[in-house]
């Protein structure tokens, strides 16, 4: 080929990306940015980003970082600084999880990085991972990008988005390596019962599956919902628990998450070494943010005031439920945890309006950005997700616009 022939070749992205979706920050979000550049004010409900809606990180966390900045300049140990990992161990012990030491705790640049590293350390090409549907799409994407295949198990709205245990077992094959559990759930807001979690643990133990429990919203539960740490139910399996500072402590930008190995740790020895190798290759995670972990986990838990009656998160959730109850166009399974609601379009729109078309119309003509439900790896296209982080006045304004949009499309 001549030089001119090479000059005309387009550089394509990886084929693996063809199977990856992340509409939460995808084409609709990019279109929203274009509209903002033209002067339109967009209400963005596509991302659970507390700082955007006026939530502040507790001051004690900021002070902990400032006071330790002089110790944050060198690289830390690849697993993280000792005080942060020790604080995570103490939290696990306070929840009744035994046998965990700092050696089983990894600090990462948010849970997102740890999801990627933990799957990379586990999967060979063609290995399968059971992932809920709807899911947080990073899980499916990370499985795919690390050579695996995401196999989705159903969490149906008719079952309050609880997993179908029988279907999960029917999906297990000789290639299945792990099962992902997101509890409290994003996007549905479901908080799984002890019975459901125990059934999943039983499946994992019988079939030798690694349990990956995403618990980033662990303290964000409402009314009589009870959060059950998955690791408290595990004996003969390997359990990875993921959590961090971003949601409960409103510190998304600090990029601090952790992953804790528990259960039958003898089975996990080689896996732990693999994850430590990958952690070492990226040197370490953000060090200043790690100094906030001990203060966060050991200090006053302000999240409790936000999720009880009178608290802002609780009241915003109530406003959303009241507006949906009064609508002839919308339905919702009451979210019992996290900071989202997974709304369903009424049956009158079946075959006339899907989630992508609705989300685009709502953005272009009413300047509200939501996440289409099908981007959470569902088999249906009549849902959309909003965050419940805005205050009540903003949510009422948003639902006025949603009602106007659907009134025009009825």
Main attributes of the structure:
alpha/beta; Aspartate Aminotransferase, domain 1; Aspartate Aminotransferase, domain 2; seven-stranded mixed β-sheet; four-stranded antiparallel β-sheet; 15 helices; 13 strands; globular
Description:
The chain is an alpha/beta fold and 410 residues long. Helix content is 37%, strand content 15%. The chain folds into two domains: 15-55 and 305-409, Alpha-Beta Complex (Aspartate Aminotransferase, domain 1), CATH 3.90.1150; 67-298, Type I PLP-dependent aspartate aminotransferase-like (Major domain) (Aspartate Aminotransferase, domain 2), CATH 3.40.640.10. It is built from 15 helices and 13 strands. The mean pLDDT is 94.
SSE blueprint and pairings:
Layout: H1 3-7, H2 27-37, E1 43-44, H3 59-67, H4 82-94, E2 105-108, H5 110-122, E3 128-133, H6 137-145, E4 149-154, H7 165-171, E5 176-182, H8 194-207, E6 210-214, E7 238-244, E8 257-263, H9 269-281, H10 287-290, H11 293-298, H12 303-306, H13 312-325, E9 330-332, E10 340-345, H14 355-366, E11 368-369, E12 371-372, E13 383-387, H15 392-409
């Amino acid at each position: 080929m001549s030089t001119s022939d090479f000059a005309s070749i387009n550089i394509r992205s990886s084929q693996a990306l063809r199977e990856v979706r992340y509409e939460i920050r995808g084409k609709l979000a990019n279109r929203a940015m274009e509209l903002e550049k033209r002067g339109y004010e967009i209400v963005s409900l596509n991302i659970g980003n507390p700082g955007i809606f006026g939530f502040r990180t507790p001051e004690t966390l900021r002070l902990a970082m400032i006071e330790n900045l002089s110790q944050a300049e060198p690289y830390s140990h690849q697993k993280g600084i000792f005080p942060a990992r020790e604080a995570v161990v103490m939290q696990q012990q306070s929840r009744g999880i035994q046998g965990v030491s700092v050696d089983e705790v990894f600090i990462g640049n948010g849970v997102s990085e740890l999801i990627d590293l933990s799957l990379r350390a586990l999967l060979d090409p063609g290995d399968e991972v059971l992932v809920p549907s709807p899911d947080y799409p990073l899980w499916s994407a990370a499985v795919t990008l690390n050579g695996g295949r995401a196999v989705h198990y159903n969490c149906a709205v008719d079952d309050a988005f609880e997993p179908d245990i029988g279907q999960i077992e029917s999906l297990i094959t000789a290639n299945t390596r792990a099962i992902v559990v997101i509890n409290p759930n994003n996007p549905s807001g479901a908080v799984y019962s002890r019975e459901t979690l125990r059934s999943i643990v039983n499946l994992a133990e019988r079939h030798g599956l690694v349990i990956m429990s995403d618990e980033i919203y662990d303290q964000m539960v409402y009314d009589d919902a009870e959060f059950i740490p998955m690791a408290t139910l595990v004996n003969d399996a390997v359990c990875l628990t993921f959590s961090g500072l971003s949601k409960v402590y409103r510190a998304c930008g600090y990029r601090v998450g952790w992953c804790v190995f528990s259960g039958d740790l003898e089975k996990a020895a080689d896996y732990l070494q693999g994850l430590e190798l990958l952690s070492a290759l990226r040197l370490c995670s953000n060090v200043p943010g790690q100094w906030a972990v001990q203060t966060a986990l050991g200090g006053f838990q302000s999240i409790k005031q936000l999720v009880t009656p009178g608290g802002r998160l609780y009241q915003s959730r109530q406003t959303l439920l009241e507006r949906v109850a009064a609508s002839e166009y919308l339905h919702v399974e009451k979210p019992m945890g996290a900071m989202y609601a997974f709304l369903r379009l009424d049956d009158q729109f079946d075959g006339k309006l899907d989630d992508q078309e609705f989300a685009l119309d709502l953005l272009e003509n009413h300047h509200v950005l939501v996440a289409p439900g099908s981007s959470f790896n569902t088999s249906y296209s009549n849902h959309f997700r909003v965050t419940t982080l805005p205050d009540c006045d903003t949510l009422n304004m948003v639902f006025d616009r949603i009602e106007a949009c659907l009134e025009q499309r009825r």
